[in-house]
Design goal:
alpha/beta; Solute-binding_3/MltF_N; Amino acid ABC transporter substrate-binding protein, PAAT family; D-Maltodextrin-Binding Protein, domain 2; 11 helices; signal
Length: 298
């Protein structure tokens, strides 16, 4: 998942955009415990079911605006099942609240309108931006992070963004890394009397990987989940440090749906307290370091 793409959103632009109602349905797709059934039986969730009686037994409609592997996408084993971080969390949220959920797919450009108008109740994790918060509210629990891809063994001893002074960074042309992160860090290096950061501009992930493997670049910076996946697929590479970006992601919910917003916030608190979200972030490839205390925004 390239950061150049996720500068717009985390869920919704990868794959073909679908029209109409999806035949995909909810089903358990991960081995992580506590399971959705476990949450349904928890005392904390029983309390929430009493606190929010209007949601008990309700079918929560989850609007989708496309698919992004790792976050929400049809299962390779059974395309009728949607799997990923978002479905794994939806399973547990709905079970904790005594509700059910189903998926409705459509064009991304009408996703927020569908939620604000009530045609869908909630959506997959999206970037929380000031512009979006004019239209919609969010329950956010995850920080967007950049990750690093290094040669195995980290021979240049690059352990943080501060170690980039005098190093060569591979970055995709037009990406956040190339336009903001690397130039800003290079300026800090220069101000501290250290060598500036050199940047090797590349066109795609494959070129970036080859640059690190050949030694033309010391590190490749990209979205954290992508960095983990790249290193996992190539034993000559390893993932390294992460950098928090000034963006959170969260579930979009209509501003006037105060009950659902409060209920999802409370359910996510239970899920986080159990350690489940961190386990799911590791399982689906985003990395547990991205978790942040859940908050309501907008």
């Amino acid at each position: 998942m390239k950061f150049a793409r996720t500068a717009l959103l985390i869920s919704g632009l990868s794959g073909s955009l679908l029209a109409g109602i999806s035949s995909a349905h909810a089903a358990s797709t991960d081995p992580i415990t506590p399971t959705a059934s476990d949450f349904a039986a928890m005392a904390q969730c029983k309390t929430l079911q009493t606190k929010y009686p209007s949601l008990k037994g309700k079918d929560l409609v989850v609007g989708l605006g496309g698919y992004t592997k790792g976050f929400e996408a049809p299962s390779e084993k059974d395309p009728s099942i949607i799997e990923g971080l978002d479905p794994s969390l939806f399973e547990r949220i709905s079970s904790c609240l005594g509700a059910k959920h189903s998926y409705q797919s459509g064009s991304f450009n009408v996703l927020l309108t569908s939620i604000s108008s009530g045609r869908a109740d909630i959506g997959p994790m999206l970037y929380v931006t000031e512009e979006r918060m004019k239209q919609i509210a969010f329950v956010a629990s995850m920080q967007v992070q950049d990750g690093s891809v290094l040669a195995q063994g980290n021979p240049k001893k690059i352990n943080s963004v501060d170690d980039l002074c005098g190093k060569t960074v591979a970055a995709a042309a037009g990406s956040y890394e190339a336009n903001k992160l690397v130039p800003e860090q290079s300026a800090k290096c220069s101000a501290a009397g250290k060598p500036e950061v050199s940047m090797l501009m590349v066109q795609n992930t494959d070129n970036s990987i080859q640059a690190v493997k050949s030694g033309r670049a010391d590190v490749y910076l990209t979205e954290a989940g992508s960095a983990i996946a790249i290193a996992k697929a190539d034993k000559s590479l390893q993932s390294g440090f992460t950098v928090d970006l000034p963006i959170m992601v969260g579930f979009p919910i209509a501003k006037d749906n105060a009950t659902l917003r409060a209920a999802v916030l409370d359910a996510m608190k239970v899920i986080q307290e159990s350690g489940t979200q961190k386990k799911l972030l590791d399982y689906w490839g985003q990395g547990s370091a991205a978790e942040r205390p859940v908050v309501a925004r907008g």
